[in-house]
Amino acid sequence: MANDEPTGLSAFTGHLVGWLHRLMPPGPRLDRLAADLGETFAGRPEPVDAATCREVEARAQLHSRHLELRFDPEGTATPDTESRGWPPVDRGEVLARAAGVREVRREADGTFVLRLDTLDPVEHAAPFVEAAFALARGATRLVLDLRGNGGGDPGTVALIAEHLLGDHAQPLSEVTYRDRRRQWWTRARPAGSALDQELTVLVGAGTYSSAEALAYHLQVRGRARIVGEASPGAADHVTPVQLTAQVHGILPEGTVIDAVSGANWEGVGVRPSEGLVHQV
């Protein structure tokens, strides 16, 4: 470990809190997270390892479910001094996995089922998403299976939502960062081209991050019936940071607010719903 890296758990936690203050929008949630970490791990001199990383992660996730710490005992990476953001996704890898379109089928009763296991960058994923929904034309009802979807690009969330929420452009969410805000919208579609069949979305413990966002947006607009188990509740936008040579972090940097509910799914997840599905 380099001489200027934190060498004990208390110092490491202080280093982590410093990064959170650099990344997260100011406010009560950041204050609670920083104070809880500082108080919980004060005076802890033991070395940072996989077990202590799990302990810090578990405490932090009481405030931000998407904060993750990964410990590599053989790690020699150079710690970040600036946030570099997500690296580009290899287009060849996206093509090899068909942008996460794991299965598309039509049941004997006309039900269309789309199993989508990731949300790759929209510039690569769009042809696969468009092709999948083309097969939904004429279906009696729609099922979107997100139970194995770990999330990804909000742009792909918006693309999928525009096929399901009607022809008119509409706001989905606003994300507040420390230094900026960004809104996500669906685009307007040709009249009558959006799908309006009854929609069921399957969720579970493996539905995470932006996949939760997609299910949540559809649920709060009354468009979909949610079936399965509650999702983990990871609503923040996050960014990767190499905290030390051995610890890689996925840290929150943006707070998502749904344009309809004025809230999000942080900490509670997207939960199964009952009742009629609204027809757009």
Automatic annotation (TrEMBL):
One Pfam family cited in the UniProt record for this chain: Peptidase_S41
Alphabetical list of InterPro entries matching this protein: ClpP/crotonase-like_dom_sf, Tail-specific_protease
Domain Tail specific protease: start-end pairs: 78-277
Region (Disordered): 67-89
Source organism superkingdom: Bacteria
Membrane-spanning ranges: none
Gene Ontology biological process terms from the UniProt entry: proteolysis
Gene Ontology molecular-function annotations: serine-type peptidase activity
PANTHER family: INTERPHOTORECEPTOR RETINOID-BINDING PROTEIN (PTHR11261), RETINOL-BINDING PROTEIN 3 (PTHR11261:SF3)
Protein's name according to its UniProt entry: Tail specific protease domain-containing protein
Organism annotation: Actinoplanes octamycinicus
Organism placement in taxonomy: Bacteria, Bacillati, Actinomycetota, Actinomycetes, Micromonosporales
